[in-house]
Amino acid sequence: MIHLENITKSFGNLQVLRGIDLEIEKGEIASIVGPSGAGKTTLLQIMGTLDMPDGGSVVIDGTQVNRMRERELSAFRNRHIGFVFQFHQLLPEFTALENVMIPAFIAGRGQQEAKEAAAEILEFMGLAERASHKPNELSGGEKQRVAVARALINHPAVVLADEPSGSLDTHNKEELHQLFFDLRNRFGQTFVIVTHDEGLAQLTDRTIHMIDGEINKMV
């Protein structure tokens, strides 16, 4: 599903990624761990086409994305990749349902189709009764589940998460972690998760350890 070959990335004189080779299989849930400054988030951003490498090849779902033009890349990202961040980044003026609908609108889906799709995934996540609530009326765990629903509305092949449970308490962390596996089992998405949470890393199919811009080991 994701094939990275000899990925390099520098910011000025700082080399952040040093020749990364990595394959993520379809339906795999992989975690990326390592100390701060190891290059984890930069690698995730390159997987998500939010940033481009200085060198190497990025192939996602059979498409070499680092040779695409920006307009093509934006459309590809919207259709194929979902993002979940540590802070939910929900728009405060919209309801949970409306926040989930936004990527579907960007993809060109009609209002009724987007509304039905958003309602269906919120119901799957146990949030049907919270669909009309705005973010300030939701708990931290509910906000993050809405953010996950938003990432999934266009049925992306890949979901990338950067410290998705970093701002949650223990109970909500456990619920969110279980949700990733439930979603993989139901929808077949591939998940790549950057995390400092050792409990989550131990649950994933594979843990990729990074240090100083390189993959140190995989277990």
TrEMBL record:
UniProt keywords, alphabetically: ATP-binding, Cell membrane, Membrane, Nucleotide-binding, Translocase, Transport
GO biological process: lipoprotein localization to outer membrane; protein localization to outer membrane
Limits of the ABC transporter domain: 2-219
CDD domains xref list: ABC_MJ0796_LolCDE_FtsE (cd03255)
MF-aspect GO terms: ATP binding; ATP hydrolysis activity; transmembrane transporter activity
GO cellular component: plasma membrane
Pfam families in the cross-refs: ABC_tran
Keyword set includes ATP-binding: yes
Domain of life, source organism: Bacteria
Protein name: ABC transporter ATP-binding protein
Organism: Bacteroides muris (ex Fokt et al. 2023)
Phylogenetic placement of the source organism: Bacteria, Pseudomonadati, Bacteroidota, Bacteroidia, Bacteroidales
